[in-house]
Amino acid sequence: MSQIHVTTKINGDTTEYLCDPEETLLDVLRDRLALTGAKEGCGTGDCGACSVTVDGRLVCSCLTLGAEADGCEIDTIEGMADGEKLHPLQQKFLEHAALQCGICTPGILVAAKSLLEKNPSPTEEEARYWLAGNLCRCTGYDKIIRAVMDAAEEMRRAS
Amino acid sequence: MPLDDQTPGQKPGEARQFKVVGTRPLRPDGIDKVTGRARFGADMSAPGMLIGRVLRSPHAHARIRSIDASKAEALEGVKAVVTRADFGAGDDDVADILDNCMAGEKALYDGHAVAAVAATSAAIARKALKLIDVDYETLPHVVDVDAAMKPDAPVLHEGLSDETVPDGVSQNVVHRVEFGHGDVEAGFAKADKVLERSFKTAATHQGYIEPHACLATMGTDGIADLWVCTQGHYMVRNTCAAILGIDQGKLRVTASEIGGGFGGKTTVFLEPVALALSRKANRPVKMTMTREEVLRATGPTSSTSIDVKIGMNKDGKITAASADLRYQGGAYQGSPADMGSMTAFAPYDLENVKTVGWDVVTNRPKAAAYRAPGAPMAAFAVESVVDELAKGFGLDPLDVRLKNAAREGTKSSYGPTFPAIGLEATLQAAKDHPHWKAPLGPNQGRGVACGFWFNFGGDTCVSLNITPDGTVTLSEGNPDIGGSRASMSMMAAEELGIPYDQVRTVIADTGALGQNEVTDGSRVTFAVGLATIKAARNAKKVLCERAAMVWGIDPEAVEWADGCARPAGDNAGKFPPMSLKEIAAIASNTGGPVAGHFEVNAEGAGVSFATHMVDTEVDPETGAVKVVRYTVFQDAGKAVHPAYVEGQFQGGAVQGIGWALNEEYIYGEDGRLQNPGFLDYRIPVASDLPMIDTVILEIPNPGHPYGVRGVGETSIVPPLAAIANSVSEAAGVRMTDLPMSPPKVLAAIQNG
């Protein structure tokens, strides 16, 4: 089986890799590039723990092939903070205790960032529906939604 | 030096004034978890690592005539194949666990492991599984608890029933328990009304988002290392050592960050298999489960069938109560029927009470603990009958519960007499809350229910070390599943009188501390917290001795306050206080490094009660139920980090919402699980829910220096019943079968 050569940008850095034709982007990120922030919770696109953006579009990396990323820009949780400065969503998740075990947190943060880029002033209901594809089993979502709404407000004030 | 539970200057009877405990600092592992750096079970690799995969039975019940792995072994890239033949007999007390990890003579459920391979890639490992020939003789199966108890049911294990099991039931009934006191028949005879109802609950899964994962390295000399996501790495060490026949001391287990457990990671599945593959291949082996494997082969909770009978007078006083609780625990003994029987009537002060529990095996995966194991189903049944009786008499359901509530001095239905407990406080808080008086809309109903959990202590070790620069490192042995490192750092800082950020708590590997019980039973903040406080007190004693040495006075004449050793009594004010930093700096010259440690089998965990209140709206056209308002009232003893206490309340409530409304294991006629994925096994998502309001009550636990009670499990006990009571009111018909999925609710409405 011959492998496919892929050139992509991940979190702003040009990255090349070889992958098998059937290999998912999630497996490439985790197993070939050691970017283990995206998690595999289901492998079927139901839990959102593997969320990344491809050219700004929120996707489940478990449902995306590694080969599809050729020529694309990929953003993952590892690129969310600006150096030592956390993204407002990351900061608000800490302040609101919006995580317990933390396994869903990277995917939820990536998804929430994508929401706020499209809709800087979501209602609570809009936030809940946007994040309905990201499962969290620990928190009951209460503090997650509060953190997202609070981050949105802070980002609006700052802009 | 005084080492009691009071702050300096505190008068007897006054509540202790805390400086750190009760605040909401950021968690120490937070930045790792919001940046993707935190390393969970599947995030570790090793040089030369192989990937292991498991072959699972497609049959619910089958004799394994033979396994031929020769073609798989011949495949390029395959480095080891193991079957049951690669494991010895093992110790008797791990026989069921071994058989669950790797089937012996029979496959007992759909998904039961029958072989495993280690290969140079996941793709090769998957290919190899298809080359293993297993010759099965399929057998009749049974998955329903009531069907499994019938005398003619297919039998999983011959001769497993013990002496408690009466004649006339199937050998699938393994054990029967009975609790209670008084004379229930006499009590029923005195009641104005006796109501008997039958209930069913479906099996649900803990549903942690992180599938099981581990990385095993075992050499031919028996020295082994294991990285694993687990609720208890000491348990993993001991169990794997017993299964593999090696010394516990030779296996070092390191707990990864854990992506949820809720009881489901209190046993082993992949770990002994990964070690056996590594031993055979002489290379590191990493194994992870798929979601389908998690649902088919790891611990759901029991499905149950429960009868409840309660006698009540028209003033709301319960005269007698009894319950018959039948829990199937999957393919091996050990369903939580015993704990269901003990907790069922624990919230009530009853003269006459009796519960009987039945532990039944079926062709399903072995039940694992799930958050207050056994209690939510029992509470669902009991609290539904209490509610129906109260409403039948036209009484306020909270008043009826207050009238019968267990309190200090109550002889509990399961035996012990309660010390100070918080049930009445939660009921009173519920009655006083605006939620109780708020108007309801059309098709809406309001339900309340109480819940109880024992809480637990157990073996615990803590080592607190003071570095030369005066910062503190705390080593404990319990995986941090929801912020416990923050709580430990807070309690250590409180006790030492130093800032929270001067303490770093780490979860030590099994080589670093003595035995630690699993992170279960809501025990960690209580037991590890207690050990942390005692370890800090031991360190303070040494710190005071060092200061006394410098000052040339008696150590007994030194006290510790606000982070400093201070001369006390006759010497008060004679020397300037010495801070922890100052004493740490001269530790080497005053006798050596300063540390405090504490080892204990912690007792006095302090039972926990909650009352939940929920409003639901039922769509009469579809039977769909929407939760519109939810409030949790629970006693925390003392909330160390209130934000994470609220999180436990909210998380338990929402898991209960899933259990009540959506979640269920669905089996086909063939005994195979029909919904092994998150699409069809649907846990609550953000758009299903409202905010979950919380009220923390603090009735101090006399068994903990700061009054702490565990809070993690009680919050899942009341929701099933509270939601059922709410939906029953909204739908106008009593719901007795969980989950209350739209087709069931619609049918109930249509059938009246």
TrEMBL record, chain A:
Domain 2Fe-2S ferredoxin-type: residue ranges: 4-80
Which InterPro entries does this one have? Answer: 2Fe-2S-bd (IPR002888), 2Fe-2S-bd_dom_sf (IPR036884), 2Fe-2S_ferredoxin-like_sf (IPR036010), 2Fe-2S_ferredoxin-type (IPR001041), 2Fe2S_fd_BS (IPR006058), Beta-grasp_dom_sf (IPR012675), Diverse_Oxidoreductases (IPR051452)
Query: Which domain of life does the UniProt lineage start with?
Result: Bacteria
Mind listing the UniProt keywords for this protein, alphabetically? Answer: 2Fe-2S, Iron, Iron-sulfur, Metal-binding, Oxidoreductase
Cite the Pfam families for this sequence: Fer2, Fer2_2
| Molecular function terms from GO | 2 iron, 2 sulfur cluster binding; metal ion binding; oxidoreductase activity
Cytoplasm listed as a keyword: no
The protein depicted here goes by the name (2Fe-2S)-binding protein
Organism from which the protein derives: Hwanghaeella grinnelliae
Q: What is the lineage of its organism?
A: Bacteria, Pseudomonadati, Pseudomonadota, Alphaproteobacteria, Rhodospirillales
TrEMBL record, chain B:
Q: Which Gene3D superfamilies match?
A: Aldehyde oxidase/xanthine dehydrogenase, a/b hammerhead, Aldehyde oxidase/xanthine dehydrogenase, molybdopterin binding domain
Q: What Gene Ontology molecular function terms does this protein carry?
A: iron ion binding; oxidoreductase activity
Q: Which residues form the Aldehyde oxidase/xanthine dehydrogenase a/b hammerhead domain?
A: 35-140
Coiled coil location? none
Q: What is this protein called?
A: Xanthine dehydrogenase family protein molybdopterin-binding subunit
- Species: Hwanghaeella grinnelliae
